[in-house]
Amino acid sequence: TSSWNQGVPQYYTMTQNPTDPNDMFDVLKGVKVGAIIIRAIPSYSATGQAQDTGATSSTVDTTGKSYNLQIIKVQSATMPLSKADGTPVDSSKLDSSLPAVTLDNNGVPSIKIPSNFKDPKKLDVEQLKVGNGDKVTDSSTVVVQYSGWLTNGTEFESSWTAGVAPKIALNSTIKGWQKGLTGATVGSQYLLVVPASDAYGSDGTESVPPNSTVIFVIDVLGVIG
């Protein structure tokens, strides 16, 4: 496989995993941005042991052992935030007809649907925190924490429960995310109220009924590209 062919950089968290023979911690530790690394990885059997395949190719050394070659270019090195750390927007400036967002001590959001809430005809984007980090483009891969709800208040998805902030290619997401997060800055937090036309449409998903408006609270923690 190749991230070059996919057009999306691969994001690697610098956490050492000594049980993974392909772990890149020791390879990347101390390397500067812009460096290009050529790495030879022994071919492994199903038991995890290096094996002699007898293959005849440019990846076979003088002992007859086969290797996979990996070429790595370090494009950026940043520490993603654990939660949005931007300046909160004054509550008096927020739209009272949109869901109200509260955060627990860890930054995990919950919402309250107001009695005057109506399904929007177009995407509603409300910035809750203003960050001053890098800007998201329409081709960026973003590191985020997010939760999603139906308009009855039922949570249908949350990255917070996994304990790891996912990296997501913005151009692979629903239109509501693409429209709402392009131009966003790292450290910011957004409320998106997304009509079905910019969400999951008439098909819906396993957890989102067809033609449903959905609500997201998204922390922008990092950006790649």
How do the helices and strands follow one another from N- to C-terminus? Answer: HHEEEEEEEEEHEE
- Count of helical segments? 3
Computed Rg? 22 Å
Distance between the termini: 20 Å
The count of strands amounts to 11
Give the overall average pLDDT: 86
Give the overall silhouette.
elongated
Instruction: Give start-end ranges of low-pLDDT stretches.
Output: 45-58
Task: Please estimate the helix content.
Answer: under 10%
> β content, as a range?
25-35%
Question: Helix/strand-derived class?
Answer: mainly beta
- Most strands sheet: 7 strands, antiparallel
Q: What is the compact description of this entry?
A:
The protein is mostly beta strands. Strands 3, 6, 7, 8, 9, 10 and 11 form a seven-stranded antiparallel sheet that branches. A two-stranded antiparallel sheet has the order 1-2.
Set out the fold topology.
Blueprint: H1 3-6, H2 25-28, E1 36-42, E2 67-73, E3 87-88, E4 100-103, E5 109-112, E6 124-130, E7 141-150, E8 155-158, E9 167-169, H3 175-181, E10 189-194, E11 214-224
Antiparallel strand pairs: 1-2, 3-6, 4-5, 6-10, 7-8, 7-9, 7-11, 10-11
List key phrases describing it.
mainly beta; single chain; 225 residues; 11 strands
Structural features, described:
- The chain has 225 residues and is mainly beta.
- It has helices at residues 3-6, 25-28, 175-181, and strands at 36-42, 67-73, 87-88, 100-103, 109-112, 124-130, 141-150, 155-158, 167-169, 189-194, 214-224.
- The model is unreliable at 45-58 (pLDDT under 50).
